[in-house]
Amino acid sequence: MREAVALNPALPACWDMLEQLYRLRGELAETSIAAQRLAALKQLPPPVVVAQSLLADGDLEPAEDVLTDHLRAAGETVGALRLLARIRLERGASADAEALLAAILDQAPDYHEARFDYAMVLLQGQRHQAARREAGRLLALAPDNRAYLKLYGAACLGLGDFEPVIDLYARLLAGLASRRTRSPTFGCGGPTP
Description:
By secondary structure, the chain is mainly α. The chain has helices at about 1-5, 10-25, 30-45, 45-55, 60-75, 80-90, 95-105, 110-125, 130-140, 145-160, 165-180, and strands at about 185, 190.
């Protein structure tokens, strides 16, 4: 079950079974994680869950078809549009993905996951200055977020601005070293360093 949700986190039945198994084993932290993941999936419209699952499985065309049908029927939501942007990016339509993400951020500027995706698309498109600006906005909110730090560092490297990267990577490496000195814990995805 853990391997299944690691490969495809949009499997409500697996999260439900994992929650029950963890509860039977008395593994409270893992029970809580599985319950949270299941609750999050249950809050989504079923076509969105199906599209997420298809995306995770690499079935991009059916994922886009299910999602666009849902968007036509139910109206646009920023979460569904973000998923559509991710599907379009995977299909190689990075300009479409970038436009969708920019439109999402116009509607919901505090949608941090969409801003992260937008910055990644900008970075992949070699638009380093814009990617660094977006990463900087994210870091202003969560200065210790490892994904945001890596994104900012990659944008700086793309610009040839190596000075901030030295300290940034030192912070990342120090954080990694401190994590490895702690004893490993096991969650739904397996060992955590």
